[in-house]
């Protein structure tokens, strides 16, 4: 009867608003990470910012973002590093520290995980892409 309908409606409504709310927590966490990822940040700090328990935030994050919170932080840092590798001639080491890594080795591992190449290979490939086809033809002719 109608009791079952209203029960299902209430259940569906409460779970969808719960999903919306959990999605908002994840979006708030992402915004916080984007604006602080070059600093030393951790899950506890992010969870405190969005007023959730760290373990619960990690679970929600994985559910809505399809990656762990720590991976998201590292992905943001690598994305920022990609931009700096393309747009500046800063050393790989100075870029690593600028985007929030405390060690070159950790930076190199994360960079390779998200891009498939080392920071130096990435910069070299970007430089090649910036040439026009005609420039590449001329460079190849000169090197023959």
Describe this protein's structure:
By secondary structure, this protein is mostly helical. The protein has helices at 2-36, 43-50, 54-65, 69-87, 92-98, 104-115, 119-129, 133-143. Helix 4 crosses helix 6 (104-115) and helix 4 (69-87) packs across helix 7. The radius of gyration is 22 Å and the shape is elongated. The N and C termini lie far apart (84 Å).
The largest pleated sheet is described as: none
Q: Give me the Rg, rounded.
A: 22 Å
Order of helices and strands: HHHHHHHH
Residue windows where pLDDT falls under 50 for at least 5 positions = 6-11
Number of strand segments:
0
Task: Sum up the overall morphology in one term.
Answer: elongated
Indicate the mean pLDDT: 84
Number of helices: 8
Structural class: mainly alpha
- Beta content: under 5%
Helix content: over 70%
Distance linking N and C termini? 84 Å
């Amino acid at each position: 009867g109608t009791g079952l309908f209203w029960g299902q409606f209430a259940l569906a409504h409460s779970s969808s608003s719960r999903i919306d709310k959990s999605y908002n927590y994840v979006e708030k966490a992402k915004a916080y990470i984007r604006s602080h990822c070059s600093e030393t940040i951790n899950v506890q700090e992010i969870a405190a910012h969005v007023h959730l328990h760290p373990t619960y935030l990690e679970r929600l994050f994985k559910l809505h973002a399809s990656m762990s919170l720590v991976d998201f932080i590292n992905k943001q840092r690598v994305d920022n590093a990609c931009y700096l590798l393309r747009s500046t001639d800063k050393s790989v080491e100075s870029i690593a520290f600028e985007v929030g890594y405390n060690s070159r080795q950790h930076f190199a591992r994360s960079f390779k995980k998200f891009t498939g190449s080392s920071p130096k290979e990435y910069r070299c490939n970007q430089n090649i892409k910036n040439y026009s086809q005609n420039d590449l033809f001329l460079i190849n002719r000169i090197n023959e």
